[in-house]
UniProtKB/TrEMBL annotation:
<feature type="transmembrane region" description="Helical">
    <location>
        <begin position="86"/>
        <end position="106"/>
    </location>
</feature>
<dbReference type="InterPro" id="IPR035952">
    <property type="entry name" value="Rhomboid-like_sf"/>
</dbReference>
<feature type="domain" description="Peptidase S54 rhomboid">
    <location>
        <begin position="173"/>
        <end position="254"/>
    </location>
</feature>
<dbReference type="InterPro" id="IPR022764">
    <property type="entry name" value="Peptidase_S54_rhomboid_dom"/>
</dbReference>
<feature type="transmembrane region" description="Helical">
    <location>
        <begin position="62"/>
        <end position="80"/>
    </location>
</feature>
<feature type="transmembrane region" description="Helical">
    <location>
        <begin position="34"/>
        <end position="55"/>
    </location>
</feature>
<dbReference type="InterPro" id="IPR050925">
    <property type="entry name" value="Rhomboid_protease_S54"/>
</dbReference>
<dbReference type="Pfam" id="PF01694">
    <property type="entry name" value="Rhomboid"/>
</dbReference>
<protein>
    <submittedName>
        <fullName>Putative membrane protein</fullName>
    </submittedName>
</protein>
<dbReference type="GO" id="GO:0016020">
    <property type="term" value="C:membrane"/>
</dbReference>
<keyword id="KW-1133">Transmembrane helix</keyword>
<feature type="transmembrane region" description="Helical">
    <location>
        <begin position="212"/>
        <end position="229"/>
    </location>
</feature>
<feature type="transmembrane region" description="Helical">
    <location>
        <begin position="176"/>
        <end position="196"/>
    </location>
</feature>
<keyword id="KW-0472">Membrane</keyword>
<comment type="similarity">
    <text>Belongs to the peptidase S54 family.</text>
</comment>
<feature type="transmembrane region" description="Helical">
    <location>
        <begin position="236"/>
        <end position="255"/>
    </location>
</feature>
<feature type="domain" description="Peptidase S54 rhomboid">
    <location>
        <begin position="48"/>
        <end position="104"/>
    </location>
</feature>
């Protein structure tokens, strides 16, 4: 089975696995340099748009991405050639990082508007609304503070503490790193579905055959659903996955011009 691995797929697997071992057990400080941070973070480096693709949060994260590459990558590399497969992987991965950063900028801008509104006219109601929207980021003790602030809405020290909470959450949000090759992998998935739409794949759970186009459609719809609901407790960068799908589809559409027969 491993003898069927194509060169680019094999090298990507080895690099990602090696980086995970080094970052997890030998040099954990690499995450601060290689993970992708928001552009306003003090930890941000432009090179992170490339390096974040080779970092993974845990073993399951690594396995799921590399298993997808292992399954879908070799046939694509045989069909497209090593150069185009590598272009597909890199363009989708880097592009996903760029689009996700733009998405983050939009979210941070919304947060900044709320902070500005509170600074201009501080009130317990605005702070309570903010806590309700970001409940997962606060410790239970914040509700005691809300009660105290509600009873003393003009207290300068309480207003200052509320402002510090706002800025603390903002600082936390801009310093959340993104890691993983999921954006690049989703580019591989959409490419496989577009080039080989009627290829039947055997699922593990449940054990049944399904055509590639239906499997990829399911992944796409599931990703869109998660982007729309925007669960604040979900630490998966679904927008980056969606970005990989869109970029990959655009690249494949360009490559497919003038070619009509795929299997």
């Amino acid at each position: 089975m491993f003898r069927n691995l194509t060169p680019v797929v094999k090298n990507l697997l080895l690099i990602n696995i090696a980086m995970f071992v080094v970052a997890s057990y030998l040099m954990p400080q690499l995450e601060r340099v290689f993970a992708l941070y928001f552009v306003q973070s003090s930890l941000f480096l432009p090179t992170q748009f490339l390096t974040y693709m080779f970092m993974h949060a845990n073993g399951w994260h690594l396995f799921s991405n590399m298993f997808g590459l292992f399954v879908f990558g070799p046939l694509l590399e045989q069909f497209l050639g090593p150069k185009k497969l590598l272009i597909l992987w890199m363009v989708c991965g880097i592009g996903s990082g760029l689009l996700y950063s733009g998405y983050n900028a939009f979210k941070i801008n919304q947060l900044d508007n709320k902070i500005e509104a509170f600074y201009e006219n501080p009130s317990p109601e605005k702070f309570n609304d903010f806590v309700s929207e970001n409940r997962h980021l606060f410790k239970p003790g914040v509700f005691d503070f809300i009660d105290e602030y509600s009873r003393n809405p003009e207290n300068p020290s309480l207003i200052q503490r509320a402002k510090e909470n706002f800025m603390g959450i903002r600082d936390f949000q801009i310093n959340i790193p993104m890691v993983g090759a999921s954006g690049a992998l989703f580019g591989i998935l959409i490419a496989f579905g577009m080039f080989f739409p009627n290829t039947e794949l055997l699922l593990l759970f449940p054990p049944m055959p399904v055509k590639a186009k239906y499997l990829i459609l399911f992944y796409g719809l599931y990703t869109i659903y998660n982007v729309i609901i925007n669960n604040p407790t979900d630490n998966v960068a679904h927008f980056a996955h969606l970005s990989g799908l869109v970029i990959g589809a655009g690249l494949v559409y360009y490559w497919k011009k003038g070619r009509n027969n795929f299997y």
